[in-house]
Amino acid sequence: MDLFEYIRWIETQAKSQAVGMPKSDKVESTWQAILFRTGGQRMLVPLIQVRAILPPPKQVSVPGAKPWVTGLANMRGDLTGIYDLSRLFFDQPAEPNRHSVVFLTKTQRFSAAFLVGRSYGIRQIPFSAERNVTGARWVGVQREARIDNEWLPILNLDVLTESDQFMNAVA
């Protein structure tokens, strides 16, 4: 047996023992979201709307503001309002813990940071796993997505920050 015959024999043996790769012709479009918890509720926020995930900053209070406005802080060189999503949506203050973070977002007009109890990281959400919300309970929530057999609200920070409720945070 010469070298080329030996190589062909090895190839034949390898092919006979090879396990094929799984085939899937279906390609599903997805988008990225951050899974988080606030006020005991798991929710999603589009990753594209979050500039950074940071620990809660030191802040100063804002006299006369709504209870869900926790204060102002210097975040990345911008004067940023800090907002407690638990108090805004559930009327109960967020319990500070070692998992608490803020989602920093920036609109054309201002920066805002939203305090949440815990962030669970980034998830890939198939567009097919979304649906519109009927009778939205929270401002900024118009859609929901199915994750782990549970429908989770998708918080649109752009819609929230443009809402009358948010714009009238200081009485």
Structure notes:
This protein has helices at residues 3-17, 85-90, 157-162, 164-167, and strands at residues 30-38, 41-46, 52-54, 69-75, 78-84, 101-106, 111-116, 118-126, 130-132, 141-147, 150-155. It has a 5-stranded mixed beta sheet with strand order 3-6-7-5-4. The longest helix is centred in the first third of the chain and has 15 residues, at 3-17. It is an alpha+beta fold and 171 residues long. It is built from 4 helices and 11 strands, in the order αβββββαββββββαα. It is elongated. 26% of the residues are buried. The mean pLDDT is 90.
List keywords for this structure.
alpha+beta; three-stranded antiparallel beta sheet; 171 residues; 4 helices; five-stranded mixed beta sheet; single chain
What is the arithmetic mean of pLDDT? 90
Structural class: alpha+beta
- The total count of strands amounts to 11
Unreliably modeled segments: none
Instruction: Tell me the major beta sheet.
Output: 5 strands, mixed
N-end to C-end Cα span: 91 Å
- Portion of residues in beta strands equals 35-45%
Secondary-structure element order, N to C? HEEEEEHEEEEEEHH
Helix content: 10-25%
Choose one word for the global shape. elongated
CA radius of gyration: 24 Å
Side by side, the strands of the main sheet go: 3-6-7-5-4
